[in-house]
Design a protein that fits this description.
Elements: E1 2-5, H1 22-31, E2 45-48, H2 55-65, H3 69-78, H4 83-100, E3 108-116, E4 119-127, H5 130-133, H6 136-151, H7 157-162, E5 164-165, E6 168-169, H8 170-181, E7 186-194, E8 197-202, E9 208-214, H9 221-234, H10 246-275, H11 286-295, H12 300-319, H13 323-341, E10 347-348, E11 351-355, E12 365-372, E13 375-390, E14 394-399
Antiparallel strand pairs: 1-2, 3-4, 4-7, 5-6, 8-9, 9-13, 10-11, 12-13, 13-14
Helix pairs in contact: 2-3, 2-4, 3-4, 4-8, 10-12, 10-13
């Protein structure tokens, strides 16, 4: 069956006396798919008939693919109502969008975590914009992928991508999501924990999530959750100082030593300048010196004198710094770094009077001691491994050897 379509550019002015109007042609088309025009100059184009698509078919296709209403309607029209063929068209559209936007950066997204018995997992589904990341359908898909990961006990990102649901793999679902949103969509991170006890925490906004595993059973729910919240809030680089990579320790110690030396030299220079009757704040940099000379607050002679004193004093002090004192101050700074960066030594976020500490023994224990909500308690749980994923800062990972 054929229909006739009339385009504006193909419709010439009707000659005088010809009572065929565009409106009449359209009316005739609606009554009969084949129009015979008495106007020999009128160009008629024949195209395949497009069958009507019912709302029930569109709804069914949307349920299968979660694609947009118009996308489903177009796909069904192209396939004469063949649902399976329409699904394939929508999949190909998603693949085309993914290929087209391969060079884009998926810096936004949704990250969620979940624990079930001795297994916990965290998934980050990434996209290009925050608008898409907050979309209910996008968050729902992230939760669906997380549920599949936990249910199938996936041990890697590749395992998760290969999981089949409703005849489609997780990788296919992610590609199809990109077709629906028009953005690059990818699984940006996946981590899991297996331990006798597990916990998880999802921060408000779905941008940050943490999971933790304990090598003891029956760890109190609130204690586990508090630990996961601590990780999310304070961003520790390791569970304890023994777990910090030696290269990180060496770097922090070197920075602390250099900073301590600079401070000692600066103090000596300031004392020498004050003794010479020169305000150290006026000559603490070349930019300040030039500015203060221009303002009349400092003469050129005073500036030269200050430069000479600063150079001589700095060289003399740097050559005679007491090594033991420098090491002691640097070690103090390193200890401060450990207290701020190692989970076991951090102050508890809910109460600065409490500290998460390590108890000596065969295992590493998480210990919260003190009074919380008016109730004294001492709770123990032992860490084996923990992970944290931050969609904004990129993936963060800390691990300690399992006992």
């Amino acid at each position: 069956m054929t229909v006739c379509l009339i385009s504006k550019s193909d419709t010439p002015p009707f000659p005088p006396g010809n009572n065929l109007s565009l409106r009449r042609v359209i009316r005739a088309y609606l009554r009969n798919p084949l129009i015979i025009s008495p106007n020999k100059n009128l160009k008629l184009h024949k195209t395949p008939h497009i069958m009507a698509v019912t709302m029930a078919e569109i709804t069914k296709l949307r349920h299968l693919t979660s694609a947009g209403l118009m996308d489903c309607k177009k796909a069904l029209a192209e396939t004469d109502g063949d649902i399976d063929a329409a699904v394939e068209i929508l999949r190909k559209k998603g693949q085309a969008v993914a290929a087209k936007r391969e060079d884009r950066v998926a810096a936004e997204g949704c990250v969620l975590s979940k624990n079930e018995g001795n297994f916990a997992a965290v998934v980050a589904l990434q996209c290009e914009t925050d608008f898409v990341a907050k979309n209910a359908g996008f968050v729902e898909l992230t939760q669906k992928l997380l549920d599949l990961a936990v249910a199938n006990r996936c041990k890697s990102l590749d395992e998760l991508k290969a999981v089949v649901v409703d005849g489609r793999t997780v990788a296919d679902l992610v590609v199809e999501e990109g077709g629906k949103t028009g953005e690059k969509t990818e699984l940006g991170a996946y981590e899991y924990v297996e331990a006798p006890s597990t916990t998880s925490y999802n921060h408000l906004g779905n941008k940050l999530a943490t999971i933790a595993g304990f090598n003891l059973e029956g760890v109190d729910f609130q204690v586990g959750r508090d630990v996961a919240m601590q990780v999310a809030s304070m961003n520790p680089i390791a569970v304890d100082r023994d777990s910090v990579d030696q290269s990180v320790i060496d770097n922090e110690l070197n920075v602390a030593i250099e900073k301590t030396k600079e401070e000692q030299v600066k103090k000596a220079v300031e004392a020498a300048l004050k003794k010479a009757g020169i305000n150290p704040n006026l000559v603490d940099s070349e930019a300040h010196i030039e500015s203060n000379i221009a303002k009349g607050w400092l003469t050129a002679e005073e500036a030269d004198k200050a430069r000479a004193i600063a150079k001589e004093t700095a060289e003399a002090k740097a050559a005679n710094l007491p090594e033991q004192m420098i090491q002691n101050i640097a070690q103090g700074r390193l200890n401060k770094f450990f207290k701020e960066s190692c989970l076991m030594e951090q102050e508890f976020i809910k109460d600065g009077n409490l500290t998460i500490i390590m108890v000596a023994g065969d295992f590493q224990f998480v210990v919260l001691m003190g009074i919380y909500d008016g109730i004294p308690y001492v709770s123990y749980g032992s860490y084996s491994v923990l992970y944290s994923v931050d969609i904004a800062a990129g993936r963060r990972l800390w691990e300690t050897p399992k006992s």
